[in-house]
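Exercise 4. Each item below gives a protein and its sequence. For each, produce the structure-token representation.

Item: FAD-binding domain-containing protein (Tetraparma gracilis).
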Amino acid sequence: MASRGERVTVIDRLPAPPAPDDEEAWKDRSRFYLIGLGGRGQKALRTLGAWDAVRERCTEVVGRRDWSPGGPSEGAERIFTDRPYTTMVLPRDKLTSVLYSLVRARHPEVEFRFGTAVKAVRSFDDGKSGAVVEVEGGGEVRAGLLVGAEGAGRCVVAAMAEASAGTNWRRTRVRRYEDDNKRVYKTVPFAVPESWRRDVNYSVRSKDGRVNFDALPADKFGSYLGIILLRETDELAREGADPAALRAVFDLTMPLLSPLVSDEAIAAAAAKPPSDLPSFRYVSPRLHQGRALVLGDAAHLVKPYFGLGANSALEDVEALGDVLDGGAPLERVPALFSRRRAKESRALVKLSRKCDRTGLVGFLTFILPLILDSIFHAALPAVFAPNNIAMMQASRKGKGGKAVALSFSEIGARKMRDRALQALVLGGAAAAAGAAARGVWRAVGTRVFAGGAAALLLGAASAARRNREKADVREMA
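Answer:
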């Protein structure tokens, strides 16, 4: 927007981030949530001319070492060799810091208002200068184009839904799902010895399902930040939990990792309050209202299990950049952006939520499809696609033969086709098996029945003969 000559104001409720290379500021690893940048996010940052600067601050992750119930005590290691990209990890706040530094260097005219939150949206198009927002502390900001990148916040989204209520069926709706698999998390820093790999993800799952632990490298020197997922009712999830109880869980479920976690880190994790994971939510059927649009988590909120939150948000930014590069006037930009990304927002959330259900629903929407996809894709890879999780990171050939990530709506459509074909194959196999069974019965059933009846008669006669013989013996005695 700034390169088009537009006057840009960024309003952020958080303080200004520290410089990317301020080692003192980034020293406390446990304060910073780590994110993995996959193929989608890397492509978007490359398009925006920011990837080189971001990559310098990343740590490479080439695989994972997993301790699962019933698995080997030393864990199972897998190095990914089937991906067109390598996952790169850095603190989420450091990504913000790098992007902020790039904007300041390239466009010093951009105005930043840190420590300021948007309080309300007064108008999405006042007919004069565009949208009008009220900020905390008084005052207002008028914008020819309002971009709501408010994360899990609801100010702009809720105002859009209210403003469009009662208009027509295309009004802005917010679809929120009840979280039937709610988890909270605490962060646990530790360091791995030199003999361990420092470029893999370490993960542990307890047999009883109580604990899920995932750790990503916080730097290139062996520092790791672990996330321990717990149910919100677990005594370890509360603030001020018993450090000894937390240590006992580490010793029991992850005996190789537990010695690497200091007593201080255990005590700090037990003492801190838990952090919530987001619930699934998407905005539909459009992402705009008047001269405003929403993107990122504001448009499609998912749990961070598959690394698609930040990556899909960066895809949104790339799509908005494409619309702006097309030269459309600002008043047309929201509708054009919405046309490109609204279906993607809905498809992303629906696909992700299917992977997070529990009980019978979870088996039918996640486990069973994984099993079917693994069987059918292995047997006929040219016909059946891989499972949902693999598809979310898959790509196709775009213009010029370059790899382009599959859109989430493409994945949803492909999986619907696969399910229909799988149902046909399984139904046909069941029908063929039934027909074969009926044919066999018709061919041999009568003989079997006749033979069985004869055997019964012979058996009865034989039993009668033996009984008479026994009676004769008794009489002789």
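Check: The chain has a mean pLDDT of 88.
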